[in-house]
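Action item from last week, closing it out:
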Amino acid sequence: MISIANYFDNGDYSGTRYFLLKKLKPPANLPVLYFSSTSHPSRSITMASFTSTTFLRKLALRSAPKHTRSQLRSVSSLGIRSAVASTALSNNVANRSPVVNPHQHRGMATISAGDALARLATDHPHMEIIRYEHKNVKWTLKHVNYYSDALACGFLDAGLQPGDVVLSWLPEHFAEQHILQFACSKAGLLLYSLDPNPELAKKDPETAKAALAKALELTNANILISQEAGDDVNYINLCQGVIPEIRIFDFGEGMQFFTPRYPHLRFPVHTGYTITGNEGMFLFKHFLVPSNNLDSLLRETGCKALDGKTPLLGELIIGKDGIPIKTGKTLTNEEVFKSKAWPQVSSILSREYKEIAGVGVVF
């Protein structure tokens, strides 16, 4: 076994003292054990996954054989916590049992997408990760984590709880959609997505409204998130056609929204910039609550710890006419990452810079 001893300071490097106990070329499946003398538990990953990622480019392994140093030199000098976040979701440690820490009950392979993002953002806050051509907005890992954390806090602060259902009627290229995906992971919410299909909405508004109505019925959504308008379609008008109470309700009065058609629906939300004339829908940006107390909000709900097995993505089966016919399978955090069901979530967690085309709201 190769053992690398390292001293940490709040999760980051405070020294470069590493020791190679055996000057032997390790097989690919040999575990690399690295450990901390402070708060970090011992963790184990295989040499194959350790050397195939882009972690730890410069290691002070002067006593190591030349071939071992050349293997490890090709790996980037990023933090241990990032290595854990990446290897956990990609399940490279599936064939090995992680070293058990009595103070930590969740294994490395069970962290949620939101937790992985938080770890990456802590280690590499200024790494540019995504750019939206609309408005030329470029975000770092810190930006993505900050906004998704604020949105998750807003959801929980509004009374939503882990296990509640979100129905998104947003295009997949919206920044708001990507932030929503991470926020649902952080808050333990189940997210369904319905294609807004602007061509159908322009050609046949009644079918578009029928699709939304059926999606609300099938998912029992507690919150609906729609764009205000886009591609010459007024989506608020479509929402009002499905949920007439939006026309007369006013969130400014402090009352709980209710519609007998969908008694489970608590928040109809739009991504526009003003409530004038649309008082019956909550503003997406008003859900952003940068209180930095997500952990305490989750504890107050009494839910169990969120991890990689927590449900995250709900599937809608769409008929040939564009109307949902039933709900499909539910994917966990780990399954979403592995299957790349949400491409931007997977690319961000893999630290792959992407540029997103398309016009749309960027808050």
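Closing note: Residues 2-109 form one domain.
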